[in-house]
Structure formats: C-alpha cells, structure tokens
Amino acid sequence: MAHHVDYLVLGLGGMGSSALYHLSKRGLNVLGVEQFGVAHDRGSSHGETRIIRKAYFEHPNYIPLLQRAYELWHDLEQSSGKSLFNRCGLMVAGPPEGAVIRGVHLAEELYGVEVESVSPADALERFPGFRIPEGFEVTHEPEAGFLHVEKCVQTHLECAQAQGAAVCLNEQILDVKVSERLIEVTTDQRQITAASLIVTTGPWSSGCLSGLPLPLEVVRKVLLWNSVREPVYNLDAGRGSFFFDMPEGEFYGFPSLEGASVKLAEHAGGEIVGDPTHVDRSLHETDVPRVSRFVEEVMPALNPHPMRHAVCMYTRTPDGHFIVDRHPANQRVVYGAGFSGHGFKFASVMGEILADLATTGITSLPIEFLSARRFSE
Q1: pLDDT per residue over 103-130, tens digit each?
Q2: Given 42, 58, 245, 252, which residue has the most CB atoms within 10 angstroms?
C-alpha cells in the first residue's frame, strides 16, 4: 500500500531543502526524498562557497527576488544561530561597454543597489594581488559576499526536521506519475502518493518531469583551488569575492578562507553530461588551461596550477534563466529547474516561492519571467 503525504519534495539540495523548510514552517505534513545524503557532493549544491550579490547583471527582474532572498538568509541565520552568509563584498571588473558592467550599473539605476565605482589607482590599493587589464572598469558591491553552501543546505534540513518534516535519504527515485487526479512516486524503497508535489532534482529534473518538454542541458563544471604565493587574498585581511568579464570568458572566485588557497572557476563552457549519476569527477587536462591563463594574467600572487578540484553540474536553459512553474497536467505539481549555474543564492527565496505555489497556486513574488511558457510561445 502506498504511503500518503500532503506535500512531497523530491530532491533536497539547495532549492529542495529550502522548500521543505518553508512548508514545514507552515505546519504542514511534508516529506522530503533525497537520492544521496545531506549536503552531498553529487549535484550542484556543494564546493564550500557560492557568491551572493544584488547588482544582478544577468537581468534586473531577479533583483526583487534577491532582496527577499537576503531577508530570508538573515532570518535563517537568526532562527538557527548559524553563520551562513559572509558579506565580504564583491569586486567586478570588465570592459565599460560589456554586458556585465552595464548590468551592474542598470541594477544600481533601477533598484538603488549600492555599487561603488573604483578608479584604477584605487583598485591597486584596495584589491592587492590583482592586475586589472588595461581599459577595464572596476566596481565594488559592499553588500555582496558568499554563502557557505553545504552549511545552508544542512541548516534548512535541520530546521525543517525540527519543525516536523520527515526526510528519507539515500533513496533513489524510480518513477514519477502525474495525472489530473494522481501524484504517485515510486522509489527503490516505497511507493508514495501525495496531494501536492515539488520537484527540485537539479540535473535529474528531466527524468523526474519526463512528461514535460523542458529544454534543459546538463554540463560538467570544474571548481579549482589554487595555492597562494603571497597572503594578499585572505578573507581575514578584508578581501572579498571577485568576478572578471574577460575577452575569453567570465571568471570568478572567492577570498582565501584558510590562507593557503583561493577557489576560482570559469562560469561559461562545460562538457555536456549524458547521465548525471555517472559524471566524470576526475580532473581533465582541458579543465585547467583557461583558468591558468586567467590567473597568470590577472592574479600574479596565485599559483596558476590547481592544488585540488571538485566537479559539479549546471543544469542550463537556452536563455540562462530559471524555470519555475506548475505542471500543466496537474497544478498541484510545482517545479524549479534549470538554475543555469547562478541559482544557489536564490535558494532561500525559491523555497518560499515553491511552497507558495504548492499550497495556494500563487506567489506575491514576481516570477512571471521564469515561466516555462516562454519556451512554447
């Protein structure tokens, strides 16, 4: 006999752990199912840190969501007593006419996001260890910083369970059936029926939403940790995160948390993944040269060769924007997918939005631009 729950969440990474938390906070009967463990390293929500910022150059429509995300991260810190968000600031550098710098200033103009313009002379003093390319504009966003990614997932789950949520770990999802009258999930351990379902399965989204023609592409992404030659990137010395819009690609990174290494990566590119369960996690020869060239050009106090690495996945949409919507066959099925490598900072608010949609069918937050309808119009 199938086990019945009112609300079921599939996938308990960044988005699913938050959705579980927000449903349980409302006193609802909710179960979360995760195919791996808590804050695992098999998907997209791992690797120690994720940048969070309000001057969102990808699209200004995200900024109201970010304003709410900031509030909710703060609330989670207050209620849990955990430190999750370090406001160390973010330096962004790129050509003045480029989409990144123009997007930063648009966020400043439209929403009053605090952004400082930094002169080349001041940049040398404020950001030691960086060689700013000739002709680049430099901005600094003091309210930006980074989230401790695994800790955020763990905290959402711990708080959800403290509020009464049930969690099933290391349980593989075999089948998801959705019809107008039925929501039925089969795992390798049980059958579950639900009155409402939230799907947040990251790179496995297409498999769990097989009835929907979602234009999702999963790519393998490598995170690198390079050793420092001089202590100029240290968090405890007041250094922050950074993002460079280079002619050959977009590169980002974080201050050195322990003084020995800096985490950095290239945002674009990535090899297409056929099966997310069996992604290659070894370091390929081709994973390193582009980042090494960036380090040699821009970060002379960093060793250009990595000392360690991690592999995660981006689940991308054609336009790089998220998909947050309800299932056309059953409006009580809600999903968030295609976060395209820039979604984790939104996890706190995405959980609230998904919980809103699952419980009432609507949310007060402006998510119309994230509807799946844009791919069929």
Answers
A1: 999 999 999 999 999 998 899 999 999 9
A2: 245
Cα-Cα-Cα-Cα dihedral of 257, 348, 213, 172, to 10°?
A: 70
For residue 153, give the nearest of 42, 312, 45, 47 by alpha carbon: 45
Q: Hey, is 270 helix, strand or coil?
A: coil
Whether the CB-CB separation of 147 and 73 falls below 8 Å is answered with yes
Residues 6+ apart with CB under 8 A from 376: none
Active-site residue set? 46, 49-50, 263, 267, 312, 345
Copy the structure tokens of residue 268: 């674009």
Integer Cα distance of 358 and 187 in angstroms: 21
Q: Which domains does the chain have, with CATH numbers?
A: 3-46+150-212+319-375 (3.50.50.60), 90-142+217-316 (3.30.9.10)
CA-CA-CA-CA dihedral for 66, 214, 318, 52, to nearest 10: 20
| pLDDT in the model for residue 2 | 82
CA atoms within 13 A on the CB side of 125: 5
DSSP state of 103: H
Nearest CA-CA partner of 325 in 219, 218, 205 = 205
DSSP line for 330-355: EEEEEEEE--TT--GGGHHHHHHHHH
**Identity of the amino acid at 248:** E
What length does the chain have? 377
The pTM for the full model equals 0.98
Question: Quick check: 260 pLDDT over 80?
Answer: yes
Two structure tokens written together for 133:
């390319």
- Asked if 70 and 77 count as a contact pair (C-beta separation under 8 A), the reply is no
